[in-house]
C-alpha cells in the first residue's frame, strides 16, 4: 500500500519541538499547540521517543486521549529505547544534533535497532501515547548525521532487526505501514535498491526543502515514485530558517544560508508570496511526496501553516526562483 491512502491530508504535525527542542516549553503551551493543530483540522501526528526522551510522546498522548482513536493517524519511531535511569541531557552524544534536547526529560536513551528493542520501543511508545495502536512506525536516524562513518553498521543492524520486526507487525495487522525516518538521502536510496525489505514510505527530514533538494531529486525521489514508496517531508522550514527562525540543520544558520534565504525572501516579496507558502508548496509539489509535517511550539503557528499550504502562488514566482538558480531546474512546482 501507499500511505497516501492512509494519511488524512497533505499537512501533518511534527512534534519534535514538543520535546523541548531548543527551549523549555511550558506544559500549557505544548498542549495548546496540539489542540490548535486539532482545531485547524490536522489529523496526522508524528512523534518519536528521541524527542525529549519521551516528552513529546507524553505531551501528544495527553491531548490525543481527548479524541477517539479512529479519528487520527499516528506515527512514531524506533531505534532508541528510553530507560528509567537518568543522565544529564546536555552531555549526550547526539551526533550532529548535540544539545538539541537538553531541556527534555533526563531519562537515558540507548540506540538499539534489534528486533527485541524494536518491539520494546513500540510497547513503551504505546504507553506514553496512551493508545492501543500505532498506524506508521519509522526506523529513526540510521544515517551519517548520527553515526558518521559507522552508519552502515547501524543500518545493517536495523535491516536484520527493526526492518524485519516491523514487516511482521505489518503482516499481522498490528501496524499499517513502516519505513525509515532520516535526515539523509543515502539510507533511503540503499533501501530502495534492496530486494527485501519492502517499506511503505519514508520520512525524509530537511532534504526536500526550498533550501536543500538537489540531491534528493537526482535518484531518491524518482526511484521512490517508481516503486510506489511515498515520501513524507519533515522539516520543510529547514529547522526554522525558512519560517523566521535562526536555525538551519538544527544549528545556528551560517552567513551563506542566511544570504540564500534573503534572496528567496526578496523574490517572494516581489510577488506577494509568503515564505511559508513557498516552502510548503514547493515540498508538496513533487508527485512522490504524500505529506509535509512542519513542527510548531506556538498555537498561532498552526493556522499559518494551514493557510500557507492553500494560499495562491503565481507561476511567475516559481519561474523567477528558477531563473535566479534558487531552485533546481528539474524540481516540480505547483504550476509545472
How would you describe the overall organization of this protein?
The protein is globular. The protein has helices at residues 27-39, 55-64, 115-129, 144-147, 151-160, 162-171, 186-193, 214-226, 255-270, 275-285, 299-310, 315-323; strands at 13-14, 44-46, 73-78, 80-86, 107-111, 136-140, 177-182, 201-205, 230-234, 247-248, 251-252, 289-293. With 336 residues, it is an alpha/beta fold. The longest helix is centred in the last third of the chain and has 16 residues, at 255-270. It has an eight-stranded parallel sheet. A two-stranded antiparallel sheet has the order 4-5.
Structure summary:
With 336 residues, the chain is of the alpha/beta class. The protein contains 12 helices and 12 strands.
User: How many angstroms does the end-to-end distance come to?
Assistant: 27 Å
Shape: globular
Taking pLDDT < 50 over at least 5 consecutive residues as the criterion, the unreliable ranges are none
Write down the secondary-structure element order. EHEHEEEHEHHHEHEHEEEHHEHH
Task: Please give the number of β-strands.
Answer: 12
> Whole-number radius of gyration?
19 Å
Order of strands, main sheet, comes to 1-2-3-6-7-8-9-12
Strand content: 15-25%
Mean pLDDT: 93
User: Which structural class do the helices and strands define?
Assistant: alpha/beta
Major beta-sheet overview: 8 strands, parallel
Number of helices: 12
Percent of residues in helical segments? 25-40%
Amino acid at each position: 500500500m501507499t500511505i497516501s491512502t492512509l494519511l488524512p491530508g497533505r499537512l501533518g504535525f511534527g512534534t519534535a519541538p514538543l520535546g523541548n527542542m531548543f527551549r523549555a516549553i511550558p506544559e500549557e503551551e505544548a498542549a495548546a499547540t496540539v489542540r490548535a493543530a486539532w482545531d485547524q483540522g490536522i489529523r496526522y501526528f508524528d512523534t518519536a521517543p528521541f524527542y525529549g526522551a519521551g516528552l513529546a510522546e507524553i505531551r501528544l498522548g495527553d491531548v490525543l486521549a481527548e479524541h477517539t482513536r479512529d479519528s487520527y493517524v499516528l506515527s512514531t519511531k524506533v531505534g532508541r529505547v528510553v530507560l528509567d535511569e537518568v543522565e544529564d541531557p546536555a552531555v549526550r552524544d547526539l551526533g550532529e544534533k548535540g544539545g538539541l534536547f537538553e531541556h527534555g526529560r533526563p531519562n537515558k536513551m540507548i540506540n538499539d535497532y534489534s528486533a527485541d528493542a524494536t518491539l520494546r520501543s513500540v510497547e513503551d511508545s504505546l504507553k506514553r501515547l496512551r493508545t492501543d495502536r500505532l498506524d506508521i512506525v519509522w526506523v529513526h536516524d540510521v544515517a551519517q548525521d548520527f553515526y558518521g562513518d559507522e552508519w552502515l553498521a547501524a543500518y545493517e543492524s536495523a535491516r536484520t532487526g527493526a526492518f524485519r520486526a516491523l514487516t511482521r507487525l505489518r503482516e499481522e495487522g498490528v501496524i499499517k505501514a513502516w519505513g525509515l525516518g532520516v535526515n539523509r538521502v543515502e539510507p533511503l536510496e540503499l533501501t530502495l535498491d534492496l530486494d527485501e525489505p519492502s517499506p511503505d514510505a519514508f520520512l525524509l527530514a530537511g532534504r526536500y526543502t526550498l533550501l536543500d533538494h538537489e540531491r534528493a531529486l537526482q535518484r531518491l525521489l524518482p526511484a521512490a515514485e517508481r516503486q510506489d514508496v511515498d515520501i513524507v517531508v519533515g522539516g520543510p522550514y529547514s529547522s526554522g530558517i525558512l519560517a523566521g527562525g535562526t536555525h538551519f540543520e538544527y544549528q545556528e544558520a551560517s552567513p551563506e544560508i542566511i544570504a540564500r534565504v534573503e534572496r528567496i525572501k526578496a523574490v517572494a516579496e516581489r510577488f506577494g508570496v509568503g515564505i511559508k507558502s513557498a516552502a510548503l508548496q514547493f515540498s508538496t509539489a513533487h508527485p512522490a511526496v504524500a505529506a509535509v509535517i512542519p513542527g510548531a511550539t506556538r498555537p498561532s503557528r498552526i493556522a499559518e501553516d494551514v493557510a500557507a499550504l492553500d494560499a495562491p502562488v503565481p507561476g511567475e514566482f516559481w519561474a523567477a526562483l528558477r531563473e535566479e538558480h534558487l531552485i533546481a531546474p528539474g524540481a516540480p512546482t505547483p504550476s509545472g
